[in-house]
Structure formats: C-alpha cells, structure tokens
Amino acid sequence: MARLGRMALWLVGVLFLITCIVALALIFPRRPSSAPSLRFDGFIALPKVKNDRALTVLDHLTVLGNDLFVASITNGAVYKVGLNTGAMRNPPEASDFGLAGAAHALVVDPTSHLAFVTRGEANTVDVFNPTNMSLVRRIPVPADPDGILYDPLNRLIYVASGGAKSATLIDPASQKSIATIPLGGEPEFAVLDPATGLIYQNLSDANAVVAVDPAKRSVVQRWPLAGCELPTSLAIDDADRRLFVACGKSSKLAVFDLSLHRVVAMVPIGFGADSVVFDPQLHRIYVTGFTGLLSIISQAGPDTYRVADSIRLHFNAHTLTLDPATHRLFVGYSSLAIAPRVAVFTPNR
Fold first, then answer.
1. pLDDT computed for residue 90 by the predictor
2. 160 shares a domain with 194
3. For residue 275, what is the domain's CATH number?
4. CB neighbours of 1 closer than 8 A, spacing ≥ 6?
5. Per-residue pLDDT tens for 85-113?
C-alpha cells in the first residue's frame, strides 16, 4: 500500500509539473524563432477592456491605412492601433469597441468611411465609426457570420455565415441587408477576384470552393479541392490566376488554378492552418494556424512553390494580416492571464 501511495503521489506530482509547464507556455509567449526571411520587430500589447477574460483569443486582423484593427472572439472587442504612433516601441495608442458577441472580421466602406464587423454569437453585422469607435447600427444577419469583404464593383458588403450556410449582401449606403445567397456548405473566408468580379468562397465542410456572382446574387460555379481537407482561409494571386487555400486538417496549402479549375500544387504546412495572406511584390505566401507555426512560402512561378522558412510562434497564434504598403506582417496571439498581443515582422529582402 505504501508503494502504491508513493506511486500515486509521484504521478500527481508529474501531472502537476506538466500542467505548470503548459500554463507557463500559454501565459508567457516566447520570442519567435529567427529566420532568414523575416525579422521579428517585437510585440504590440493590446489594452485591457471592460469585457476582458482570463483567456483572450484574437480573430481577424486588418490593416486599413495607418491603422491596424484586431477583432477578439472572447471579449468582443475590436481594437484599433495607430501604426504611426511607434506602436512597436512604445505603449500603443489603442481604443476598443466592445459589445456582446464574438467579433470576427471587419471592412470599411470607402464612401461613408464606416466600418462593418461581423459578430458570431449575436448574429449581427455592427456598423461603427472607426474614428471614435462608436456604434452606428446593428444589422441582423443569418447565424454565425464570419468572413466579410467589400465589393467595389457593386458597392456591396458581402458576409459569410457558417451556421446558416449562406452569404448576405448588405447595402452600405442604407445599412440594410438586400439579399441572402444559399452556398450549399459552411463558409468561413472569401476573397474578391478583381478581374472577374466574382467572389471565391471556401466551404469547409464540403472541401470545396464556390464562385459567387454578387450581381446575379447566386453561386455560379463549384469545384472540389482535391487533397484539401477543411479549407479555411483564402488569398488570391489575380495576376497569375491562382487561389491559395489553407487546408486545416490536411496540413497543406493548396494552389488552385482559376483558369483550369483544379489544384495544381500542394505545399506542406503546419496542422490547423487557419489564415493565409499573399504578398504579390515579394512573391511570398504566409500561413499560420492552431499549432502556432508560421510558414513562409516562396513563389518561384505560378505552379512552383517551396517552404522558405518555418517560425515557431505561440500556441493558437492562428491569425495574421499583411500591410501592403510596408510589407510588414502582423500575427495575433492568444493569451492567458496577460494582455493579448500582436507580433510584428519585417521581411528581409
């Protein structure tokens, strides 16, 4: 009995030690590993908000002009960080816009300069003034809105609702929904093709991508993504007619030919890939996801890709965005018991 008691105590001690190590790893993000292709500039620490919780999970990041907007799933905040205020060196001048419901993604209407953010739990698109972060209106939409984009050709806001398996078109002038488009699967993220005016939308439960014509207000084409399980985020190379698809379950980046309508390349990346961006000037694709592995993929040609670098970040550092003007990369970190933060990287040419 004494021996069994000692073994039980030893096991409890080991489990306690493992729990402490995991907790410390979650609480204190380590400095990202170095890489030839990217230089780590530091963290932007986001401010406390009234709805703060012990765990903060960030979702979509968006650079609009000189501001970085960061949406939070857990506390509902939309942070705004001025990138001209020395945010990488000094405490950032940031404001938050917090309401009930997980905040996912946002866009700004270039005419009214108002912002539109999706809220998954509230099933709304919230319209707010990004200058003073004040609410203007809440627009009801179908269940689980997530991805959002602005269509300049038709002057519409496009919203993808995963739970409802549909998309909503919103007129930013009247701030009202004007159409609902059945998609035939669970959407998450969408991209606009400036050459055709079509919106390409992933269907995560069907391992497929569809083309939505906002003028016709319908799905006009649908294609399977061979070898891509759980497609999540998308990015587009409109010059070479390629669509980049992060495949969360199969740990791949799929390259889809928009002319041939088939997958032409698969690049190995980390498990749980959730966010992808493309820098057309540097010919780079950046992907990160659930495991916190940032993959930097070099584009040698339309169908030729290689992993140039892999950088270990932080657990669930799953979302990123690119500043097209400076080529800087911003990655959102999940946080436990400390302020949420965004890692900033500058490319080495």
1. 55
2. yes
3. 2.130.10.10
4. none
5. 666 555 555 667 767 778 999 999 999 99
